[in-house]
Design goal:
- This protein is of the alpha+beta class.
- It folds into 3 domains: about 120 residues, Phosphorylase Kinase, domain 1 (2-Layer Sandwich), CATH 3.30.200; about 110 residues, Phosphorylase Kinase, domain 1, CATH 3.30.200; about 220 residues, Aminoglycoside phosphotransferase (APH), C-terminal lobe (Aminoglycoside 3'-phosphotransferase, Chain: A, domain 2), CATH 3.90.1200.
- Helices cover about 45% and strands about 20% of the residues.
- The radius of gyration is 24 Å and the shape is globular.
Length: about 500
């Protein structure tokens, strides 16, 4: 039986359905949610909770940096606070998180069990000397506050940011590298990425008495995913050096895996993510920066790297097939139904549409995939390429990586200065270039139709997941944009 036509979200969703903060169920579930997004109210709350009563107002600005709602598990809101420095006309910014629970009993239990021990451990650390107490329980809001690097869900972050401790951990591995002339005597830690729960990327600057500085990256995970990092890095180094698909690429060498912290230590890989900037220039009608590769060449390089991964024969990573993707997607849709029933119902309809199409499409053989293959994972240093972030490697259809790349290549279309038709034409040309280059490099020259069919399925799943993630991130504008992309993708399938 043919699927029903894809309906517009505009005609099916009532006003306010795309705004998580407008959900009565969410407001009832989390009594502190409204206050948490009122930055002026939170400025006062944070002042009262983190500073002594006799301290004058210290927090001059409070900004929501990001938020993540997890159905059934509460919501975490992260703030950037601006504080005055001792020097005239200067300010300092700090990071503070608020974790919201259903009731005061749950928040008190979390504070006492997961946060209070960390407060004891961080006492005397310079990172929290800006406040009188780095954590607090706000009972009436069922909220737990904690200043970075405290994190009740990622407790190892406290040790991973302890400079003297990390100097001791890293120094032995640097001694084994030829690039280090003298052993480091100091370590300085910088936060790079703290976007996902239970994951964090850190940068360690280690200096020696000879003023030599070495940069090491740390990938901190709370789910054990970094355990494969060294084996994956070693295997991919061989693949990247071979240039078997016409594209050489480097990968960061893993110096060590510290199981007690679930922390991978990696050497620095030279280069920058330039695809995103090149794409922005194209969409805004501006010339590309002088001396850089063209957008087309970078897209082709990414396609050949993907082909190298998929034809490598590397057997590392868990199985992740289409049925797994559909099952996880369905679970996510069901979990958000209490807080957003109308949106969940619409996504369930679209999920059924994708499931029906998947049943009529034969699967491609599973093989090694990056698992999070987006433009931001490819670095360019002149003509040289590098590939980073192996936390999500898996055994999957090649369409998974291909779909992820082309999906996230097109999510910035709403900021285009071109007409909608011109923007679609730009994305269509880039997508076609990627898939054709990939197909030739991976050996799909006679079977591109099946590959494109599977990519279409995985792309629809990625877009639906983006809708859900945008809702959980409490970003209504992004939800609307993601919905529009889903509708367009599914309409193309019907046609």
């Amino acid at each position: 039986m043919a699927s029903e036509p894809v309906h517009s979200a505009d005609t099916l969703l009532p006003e306010g359905a795309l705004d998580p903060l407008a959900s009565p169920v969410l407001q009832q579930e989390l009594p502190g949610i409204t206050t948490a997004f009122d930055t002026e109210a939170m400025r006062a709350r944070l002042q009262a909770a983190l500073f002594a009563d006799n301290r004058p107002p210290t927090i001059t600005e409070c900004e929501v940096e990001q938020a993540t709602y997890t159905p059934g598990a509460g919501c975490t809101v992260r703030y950037i606070l601006t504080l005055p420095r001792h020097e005239p006309n200067t300010t300092n910014t700090v990071l503070v998180s608020a974790q919201l629970f259903c009731n005061a009993q749950e928040s008190a239990a979390f504070f006492n069990t997961h946060v209070a021990p960390l407060v004891t451990a961080i006492r005397g650390r310079p990172e929290v000397n800006w406040c009188d107490q780095p954590a607090a329980h706000v009972e009436d809001l069922a909220m737990v506050l904690f200043a970075y690097p405290l994190d009740g869900e990622l407790p190892a972050l406290l040790q991973a940011t302890d400079n003297p401790y990390m100097l001791q951990q890293i120094a032995p591995y640097l001694a084994e590298t030829a690039s280090t002339v003298a052993p480091p005597s100091t370590c300085h830690t910088e936060l790079v990425d703290y976007g996902r729960q239970r994951r964090c990327t850190l940068r360690y600057q280690l200096s020696s008495p000879l003023a030599e500085t070495t940069t090491i990256y740390g990938k901190l995970t709370g789910d054990g995913s970094g355990m494969l990092a060294e084996a994956v890095s070693n295997a991919l180094a061989v693949v990247g050096q071979s240039g078997i698909t016409g594209q050489h690429f480097g990968v960061p060498k893993v110096l060590a895996w510290l199981p007690e912290l679930q922390l991978s230590l990696l050497e620095t890989l030279p280069g920058q993510d330039i695809i995103s900037d090149l794409l922005k220039s194209r969409l805004r009608g501006k010339p590309a920066p002088a001396g850089t590769l063209s957008l087309e060449r970078t897209i082709e390089a990414g396609a050949r790297i993907a082909a190298a991964l998929h034809t490598s024969g590397i057997g590392l990573g868990p199985r992740r097939d289409l049925s797994d993707e559909l099952a996880r997607l369905e679970q996510a849709i069901v979990s958000m139904a209490p807080a957003s029933p109308e949106l969940s119902a619409l996504l369930a309809t679209w999920h059924q549409h994708i499931t029906e199409r998947a049943a009529r499409s034969p699967a491609l053989p599973l093989g090694f995939n990056h698992g999070d293959f987006t433009a931001g994972q490819i670095l360019f240093d002149g003509e040289n390429c590098g590939l980073i972030d192996f936390d999500s490697v898996c055994q999957a259809e090649p369409a998974l990586d291909v779909a992820q790349f082309v999906t996230y290549l097109t999510v910035g279309g709403q900021k285009s200065k071109h007409s909608a038709e011109e923007t679609r034409a730009i994305f269509a040309e880039l997508t076609e270039r990627f898939i054709q280059t990939y197909s030739a490099a991976a050996g799909y020259t006679t079977n591109t139709a099946l590959l494109q069919s599977r990519v279409s399925l995985y792309r629809s799943i990625s877009l639906l997941r983006r809708v859900i993630r945008s809702w959980q991130k409490m970003k209504p504008s992004r939800i609307a944009g993601a919905l529009a992309m889903v509708q367009e993708a599914l309409a193309e399938e019907v046609n």
